[in-house]
Specification:
With about 90 residues, the chain is of the alpha+beta class. Helices cover about 30% and strands about 30% of the residues. The longest helix has 16 residues. The radius of gyration is 12 Å and the shape is globular.
């Protein structure tokens, strides 16, 4: 698997997988990114790809100096389970 990247033209973070991209759509306003929808290829669901994507997105957001609004229930639950990302919450 490759690293998560910011596809700003499509307003989403992406992770390439053998079954196509896993991604999280976002809406950015200034220094805040609202993460609105996560999707993992159906063939790979339940294999940890979503968690890998979430971790990569949050680490990339931190490196970009962004705060996060977790509008996607998956991302909100991920942050709740991983308190090391609480400081990213807007």
């Amino acid at each position: 698997m490759s690293a998560v990247r910011d596809n700003s033209e499509a307003s989403r973070y992406e992770l390439d997988t053998p079954s196509g991209p896993a991604f999280i759509d976002y809406r950015r306003h200034g220094g805040v990114a609202a993460l609105v929808h996560a999707e993992v290829p159906q063939a790979l669901q339940g294999q940890g790809i979503g968690s890998q994507l979430a971790q990569g997105v949050l680490e990339l957001a931190r490196a970009q100096g962004l705060k996060i609004l977790p509008r996607c229930p998956f991302i909100a639950a991920y942050i709740q389970r991983h308190p090391q990302y609480q400081d990213l919450l807007a």
